C-alpha cells in the first residue's frame, strides 16, 4: 500500500510523512529528494539551470518510479506534483493508493513560508512579505482544485505534528 501526501509548500508533507511512515512501519520516500538524487542536483539548481518544464518532466518520471515500488511506502509529493499534466489521474488510478491532502490555510502557509522562502525556487524572487502572501493566496486558490480531489483531507492549522499524524493514522 502507498500513502501519498499532497498539499501546498509548507503544509508539512515531508516532516509529517517521515513520522507517519515510522509510526506505521512503512518506508518513506520524499519525491523532491528522489528527484535530486536522480538528477544529482538540488531542486533549486534544477530550476535555475534547466527550468521548470525540465523539472516537471523529471518529477513525472520520479513519481512513476516510486509508484512501482512494492513495499508499503509513505510518499511526500512536491507541492505542484498533482497539479501538472496527468499526475493526479495517474495517482488516483493506482491500486492500493490513498492520497491525503494536508490542508493549511493561507495564514498558516504565509507564516511558515516567510522564513524559508529563499530555498524554494517558486518563492525565492518574491521580495516582500505582502508580495509573497498575495502569491501564495492566488497559487493556493488555483491548486486547491487538484488537492481537493484527494481521498482524504486533513486540516493542519493550529494542530501539532503529533495530532496531524494521529489523524492520518486513524484513516486506515
Ligand atoms: C514545488 C514545491 C516544492 C518542489 C518544487 C516545486 C511547487 O516541493 O517540488 O520547488 O510547485 O509547489 P515542496 O512542496 O516540498 O516545497
Number of helices: 8
Q: Tell me the number of strands.
A: 5
Q: Please identify, by name, the CATH architecture.
A: 3-Layer(aba) Sandwich
The CATH H-level superfamily is: P-loop containing nucleotide triphosphate hydrolases
Order of helices and strands: EHEHHHEHEHHEH
Query: How many structural domains can be distinguished in the coordinates?
Result: 1
> What is the terminal separation in angstroms?
11 Å
CATH topology: Rossmann fold
Mean pLDDT figure: 95
Note the beta-strand portion: 5-15%
Q: Find the structural class using helix and strand composition.
A: alpha/beta
User: What are the segments in which pLDDT stays under 50 over at least 5 consecutive residues?
Assistant: none
What general outline do the C-alpha atoms trace?
globular
Bound compounds, each kind once, are: shikimate-3-phosphate
Q: What fraction, in percent, of the residue positions are helical?
A: 40-55%
Looking at how many chains there are and whether they match, the oligomeric state comes to single chain
Question: What is the class in the CATH system?
Answer: Alpha Beta
Major sheet size, sense and barrel closure: 5 strands, parallel
Description:
With 172 residues, this protein is α/β, with parallel strands linked by helices. The protein has a single domain, classed as P-loop containing nucleotide triphosphate hydrolases (Rossmann fold, 3-Layer(aba) Sandwich), CATH 3.40.50.300. It contains eight helices and five strands, in the order βαβαααβαβααβα. A five-stranded parallel β-sheet has the order 2-3-1-4-5. The longest helix has 19 residues, at 129-147. It is globular and about 40 Å long. The model has no long low-confidence stretch (mean pLDDT 95). The site of shikimate-3-phosphate has 11 residues, from α1.
